[in-house]
Amino acid sequence: MSAPSMIRSPTLPPTNNTTTSFSTTYSSFSSGYPYSSNMREEATFKVLIVGAGIGGLMLGYCLERAGIDYVILERMNHFPVPKATIQLTSNTLHLIEQLGLLDEIMKIAKPVSQVVLRKHNMAVIGKIDCLYVKQRMREGCVQWGRYVLEVVSGNGGVQCRCANGHVEQGDVLVGADGAHSAVRQNMYKTLRDKGILPKVDSECLKFTQNAIMGSTEPMDEELFPDVGKEFGDVHIVIGKESPYTMWITPALGNTINWCVTGPMLTTHRTEENFMVSGFGPEEAEKTCQMIKHLQIPYGGTLERLIQNTARNNINKILVEEKYYKTWYYGRTVLIGEACHKFVSFSGQGAEQAILDAVSLVNLFHKIEHPYPLQAITNAFEKYHLDRLPATKAAIQTSGQLAGLINRQGWSADFKRKMVFNLPTWVQAVSVDKMQVRPQLDFLPLIVDRGSKSVRSLSLKSVSGGQ
Ligand SMILES: Cc1cc2nc3c(=O)[nH]c(=O)nc-3n(C[C@H](O)[C@H](O)[C@H](O)COP(=O)(O)OP(=O)(O)OC[C@H]3O[C@@H](n4cnc5c(N)ncnc54)[C@H](O)[C@@H]3O)c2cc1C
């Protein structure tokens, strides 16, 4: 595996560092963007990845293990510190173990024993048993501060041009740049201009509600007994009359992550909120005032947690969802939230981004020199077919979960009581429907260790292989 390389093109036009526009050109590189064969010293297949979120990082690491050349271009200058809990399930544990990351991850993760659903007054409605982990990625594989502004795609390959003038080129481009993906928007512009973009893909992300979240300082075990336990419980508290839901998750280092979602959190007009994907500190402060009276499972109110949360550890965001129909075109393909955005609290987004990465790397690994465009197109098509059933099931489940948790009224109460008190075997059947557990075809497979064996799906079993 060669180290990620940096290639500068002396013939590029000067860069305007202040511009935030992004454009894609699907043409020959000879028109102002030379892409001569001597610029590529090795005849290796090279993947450009835009975005170092969990999808982009996992893709990069899998490519590294596959011996495929790659570079990740990330607009931020540093590794973004997550301000929310990311819960991962057994769907991604095999892969994490296969990559040799499980022991390290377990050192920084807090295993979860159960999810407890509660009423506003802390009465328990029901529980679901589970075990999750948090994610980590090793350093040194990402080029920070690379705000990708332009993509040029042609017969010879694809180039990314960044705001600071840096140019990177490769055989394919993966848009792992999140829900507001510029790679997607510009790929869609090309398709719209050609009149082949499906109507549904022109529609905006569907805004459902707001969420505010925070991560406390280390808390006193005597006052908050949950934090000292090896296995934490996730508490979901349903609002009384106002449709809010509170999530409380003990995290590593005796900290507690809290999150409140609901339309009640809007402190000014929704249309204005819709223009931004995040809110400033003043908006977060106002929202804290609105929710500080909510009861928490440890006794007292949420104010106890808010008071112990540094202000820069509190975030207010929009909760959006959307499933895109078009995932690839030419040499560009999308993964993660760039092509499917789940409501954040459904616990699906990061997992599905990782599963996208596994599927794609298994296919890239089979593309042979000289990497013809047709082989790339076939790989993208197989990737889309492979991921379609699982991502559709996940978006359906996340919508149902959101409905189950957020709805008010006696019938919603009844449904919640039913679902969270189903016999264990019925819970297992529902969970089985979502089990995919794919692994990398080119590494030794990890054997199931759970109480029940679930077939590890790779592309060989999903789409007949290549
Ligand atoms: C409160 C909350 C709780 C959640 N809980 C869970 C959970 O329990 N389980 C779960 O599975 N998921 C959860 N999620 C969802 C999960 O965090 C996301 O689905 C996941 O992080 C998406 O990953 P991604 O790599 O697709 O995109 P992102 O994480 O959005 O990464 C995109 C990256 O691309 C970069 N970028 C964007 N544009 C450019 C550009 N032009 N040039 C260069 N770089 C660019 C961005 O800076 C960013 O680093 C939660 C989300 C929230 C908000």
TrEMBL record:
Pfam families named in the record: FAD_binding_3 (PF01494)
Renumbered residue ranges of the record's region Disordered: 1-20
Domain of life: Eukaryota
Domain FAD-binding: 46-186, 314-397
Keyword line: FAD, Flavoprotein, Oxidoreductase
GO terms of molecular function: FAD binding; monooxygenase activity
Family statement: Belongs to the paxM FAD-dependent monooxygenase family.
Name by which UniProt lists this protein: FAD-binding domain-containing protein
Native source species: Mortierella alpina
